[in-house]
Amino acid sequence: MDTLKNRWNKWNPVTILLSFFIIWFVFAFLVFPNVNTIYETFFGTGTFSLEPVEKLLRSDRAVQSVLNSILLAIILVFTVNIVGISLVLFTNYFDIKGASILKLSYFSTLVYGGVALNLGYKLVYGKNSPLTDFLTQINPNWDGNWFSGLFAVGFVMTFACTSNHMLFLSSALRNVDYQTIEAAKNLGASQITILKNVVLPTLKPTLFALTIITFLTGLSATSAPLVFGGKEFETITPMILTFANSSSSKDLATVLALVLGIVTIIVLTFMLRSEQKGNYISISKTKTTLVKQKINNKTVNILVHIIAYILFIIYTMPVLAIIIYSFTDAMAISSGFITWDSFTIDNYLLTFSSLEAVRPYLISLGYGFAGSFLVVAFCLLCAYLMKKYNNRLTRTLDFMLMIPWFLPSTLIAVGLTVTFNTNQWVVLNQVFTGTLWLLLIGYIIVNIPFTLRITKSTFFGINQEIEDAAKNLGANAFYTFIKVLLPIILPSIMGIYSLNFIGILPDYDLTVFLYHPLYEPLGITIMNATGNSASADTKALNLVYTVILVILNTMILTAVYGNLRFRKRKKV
Amino acid sequence: MMGKGMKYAILLTGLFVVLVLAACSNGSSANTDGTETANADSKSTETKNTDSETASETTNSEEKLIVYTNSNGDGRGEWIVEEAKNAGFNIEIVGAGGGDATNRLISEKANPVADVVFGLNHMFFEQLQAEEVLTPYEPAWASEIEEGINDPENYYHGLVKQALVLSYNPEFVNEADAPENYLDLANNEEFAGIYQARDDLGSATAKVIVASILAQFEDTNGELGISDEGWETIARYYENGVQIPEGEDYFTIFASGDAPIGTMISGELAAKQEQYGTEPAFLHPEVGTPQVVESIAIVDGTEQLELAQEFVDWYGSAEVQGAFAAEFNAMPANLEAQDQVTDFQKEIFADVKAQDIDWAFVTENIDAWVEKLELEIF
User: Fold this and answer.
1) Does the CB of A361 have a partner CB in chain B at under 8 Å?
2) How far is CA A98 from CA A101, A308, A309, A535, A568, in A?
3) Choosing among A535, A561, A570, which should be mutated to test the B contact, i.e. which has the most B CBs within 10 A?
4) Which end of chain B has less neighbouring CB within 10 Å, N or C?
5) Are B336 and B144 in contact (CB under 8 A)?
6) Closest in A249, A378, A490 to B29, CB measured
7) Ordered domains of chain A (ranges, CATH)
8) Which positions, given as ranges, span the membrane (chain A) (predicted)?
């Protein structure tokens, strides 16, 4: 009976159809355009040439940058995991006073990122900041540029990259069966033992995924090294971006991107092996919700509180700085010195000079909504098939879907436009360049790797028994997926959905190549207002757009995520 | 026409299948959630539908010109659209930085979206011409342009002149201590740490400064056409200079005194001065000041060649360029438009002597120079 059913499942026409769809999509949009780019690099002149590789190896700066990127990635794996796990424990596991306020500040990295976030840290720790002024007053020998180099980059990125922990580790933690903790307690286990041997192992699949993501974030770090790295700590992505923009140096960009790709594949192979080996304790089947733990040891309790509130300050200050300085004039922003006269709302008036100004927001919201939805749906499908049929084909698929992670978006975009501006048999002879679709496809592609990693880890965290139980009760695969699996993973899925959404809103690098001329997205508007060619007060406008994005993102998060939790609470 | 309709039909069906599948899955996850998520999904299908409808509408209309430019910030884009409308042109502006616009045009070569491109400087236009993106056309006003600016083969024609003026901030640097030129900055230790050396070589401004320095060391036997002395000089120039931090602006660090010697861009000065209340003092090197010219050209393969030509004739005319100059403090390349130039601009250009740069030599080599700078010198 069981084998019969399995066999039937294996040849389920829907599965076959979907598999073909995935294979076609991956080939048409991930492999075809990008392999074109890579091929051009090495065979551009007609013969195979290693010249770009030699050029790069001769350059100390290039080699050092690659090493720096890898060093940063390794450091971040440790620091981000330590801070991230602490945040999640402080807000969801331990009984900390004022946890809801703490949570708010720990969540702040979700609503702003990239250059804006770095600007925030710069306003707090940078050369002209009140903090640095204070430090130089205490100690006149204090270097005004103290906040730079590896330390500064590591510091900023450690706290900037914990968003995923806050979202996905929290939801994994909430799924821990409280009865296992109770049982351990009854057996006389200490709090630290319970944490180490009961709670953390359950979080392993999620931590694996988060570690991969953190590593790759460090590897491809762009804005933090540009802002804080200075000459002594340069990383590879800024160099890739410079070369990718110059027509004759694209080969160098591709080679550097391939280096990142190879490191990514090595890390991924290693991680996937561990992921498959892992033997996980499953999530609760009986819905006993986690009860927050009061720390018994008084000194430890005080210490934990102090750390929690120091983190609170670290997380709050950059956001506060951005909001405050967005209401001041250009001079105050650059000098860091605020007087009563500095305050103005001109920056905001400039941004919303006409009703037309609202249009890009709507367009980007539309793209964010649709793009994020489709990428989540696609990755759910892939992850489900990967879990169900763990064979060579699905493992290859896993690697294929990681392609967008190591190619810079400029190259992906150029690959897409060059490939799809003529009739291509692979998409039934359609021309995509100059249509609305190209940008949508672009957004889907670049968000696949991250979405897939999280989706997969969520799927692997589900107990096989739950699925088996549903099947034994006669539910077919589709029904099981919808009725049993999806509700369990929904919080994480919604988390990815909103993160992708938030990421799409201000995107420039990819958008500028793919957008439809008549539909200008927000990223373009922001760049036009604040970029090089604009003469308006670019720094102030940057702050204003950041604040607007913070508000928008908060709205998206509360709409998608908050709502979900609210409903959950109602059910309890 | 049928092809277009079919295309959208196919795409929509594909999208619809995915949406429906996903909508089902969400909708039935829990009864209480159903209505909300389902609502949201139908909304997304709706947006898709309307989007594609309007898209096919606009691609059908024959009269709209798509114009790529990097010169649409600060309300310039709106002004141009409005003026064009009054003159009977229906144009749509696509804004992107010079490098990005160039890359986009090149990658769209096989099936161009744009009809006209303007605002990029001649280095980008040289690149576009080499990639065969442009089609030649001699506008009615071509003869009114200053000599030496238009492309001799008529691929592009000048609109606006920008002078990149080496300047110092008199609040922090005395007139007696001011440098003479870029080479002085590189060779004289006393300027170390107080002048700007822009390393954002993706930007046109930084490239022009590099060109201005290196072009003085042209040597056919040297590496990439530049003598050893030239490479040593530019290495020192970057070694001693201050780089503009990411997320900041050249004028910010100029005004704050972090790097009070730097290159001002003539077209941006008026607005910058007003914001920061800083008035730069200009330097006039003997070798001259590098000037870049923003030009206009027609994209090869446009389906509306005649309309594009009419637009170019109109936009580059003395009347329009003069009005633009008066409105946005620009320096038109069209001699007959120069009587409308603001006093402010006149003052900047009064003593500026254009540096004689062999642009053909520069465009041929600039990418290789940038590569060398990035890999070996920075």
Assistant:
1) no
2) 6, 10, 9, 45, 22
3) A535
4) N
5) yes
6) A490
7) 1-47+359-536 (1.10.3720.10), 65-325 (1.10.3720.10)
8) 12-32, 70-94, 106-126, 146-169, 206-228, 252-272, 302-327, 361-385, 397-420, 426-446, 484-505, 543-564
Q: E strands of chain B, at which residues?
A: 64-69, 90-95, 116-121, 134-135, 157-168, 218-223, 226, 261-265, 281-282, 291-299, 331-332
Inter-chain touch A417–B245, beta carbons under 8 Å: no
How far apart, in whole angstroms, are the C-alpha atoms of residue B136 and residue B144? 18
| Cβ contact, residue pair B41, A373, below 8 Å | yes
Strand B64-69 relative to strand B90-95, pairing: parallel
Neighboring chain B residues of A328 at a CB cutoff of 8 Å? none
| Distance of residue B66 Cα from the nearest chain A Cα, in angstroms | 7
Give the ipTM of the model, two decimals please: 0.76
Q: Is A23 on the interface with B (CB under 8 A)?
A: no
Q: Do B114 and A370 touch (CB under 8 A)?
A: no
CATH number of the B163-291+356-377 domain: 3.40.190.10
A36 touches chain B (CB under 8 A): no
- DSSP state letter for B243: P
Distance between CA atoms of B74 and A558, rounded to whole angstroms? 34
Mapping DSSP to helix (H, G, I), strand (E, B) and coil, where does residue B83 land?
helix
**How far is A304 from chain B, CA to nearest CA, in Å?**
36
H helix runs in A326-391, sequence order? 330-335, 346-351, 359-388
Q: Which amino acid, one-letter code, is at A384? A: Y
> Residues spanned by CATH 3.40.190.10 within chain B?
64-161+294-342, 163-291+356-377
Nearest CB among B78, B202, B255 relative to A334 is that of B255
CA distance B26 to B22: 6
Say how far residue A334 (Cα) sits from the centre of its chain.
30
Distance from CA of A329 to the nearest CA of B (A): 8
Chain A residues 209-228 with CB within 8 Å of chain B:
223, 226-227
Q: Which fold is adopted by the domain B64-161+294-342?
A: D-Maltodextrin-Binding Protein; domain 2 (3.40.190)
Q: What is the pLDDT along chain A (572 residues), one digit of tens a residue?
A: 444 445 445 567 878 888 889 999 999 888 888 887 777 777 766 667 788 888 889 889 999 999 999 999 999 999 999 999 999 999 999 999 998 899 989 999 888 877 778 888 988 998 878 888 889 889 888 888 889 899 999 999 999 999 889 988 988 888 787 888 888 889 988 888 998 888 888 888 788 889 988 998 898 888 888 888 878 898 888 888 778 777 777 788 888 888 888 887 788 777 777 766 654 555 555 557 788 888 888 999 999 999 999 999 999 999 999 999 888 887 777 677 777 877 888 778 777 766 677 888 899 999 999 999 999 999 998 988 888 887 888 888 888 888 888 777 777 888 888 888 777 777 777 778 778 899 999 999 999 998 998 888 888 777 777 778 887 888 777 788 788 888 888 888 888 898 899 889 888 888 888 888 778 898 888 877 776 556 556 677 778 888 988 898 888 888 876 655 544 444 43
The CA-based diameter of chain A, rounded to the nearest angstrom, is: 81
Which of A40, A337, A455, A532 is the best substitution to test chain B (most B C-beta atoms within 10 A)? A532
Reduce the DSSP state of residue A328 to 3 states and report it. strand
CB contact under 8 A, A482 and B110: no
Spatial CA neighbour of A557 closest among A54, A112, A44, A79:
A112
For strand B218-223 and strand B226-226, is the pairing parallel, antiparallel, or unpaired? Answer: antiparallel
- Cβ-based neighbour number of residue B298 at 10 Å: 24
Interface test with chain B among A533, A560, A561, A570, by most B beta carbons within 10 Å: A533
- CA atoms within 13 A of residue B278's CA, in its CB half-sphere: 26
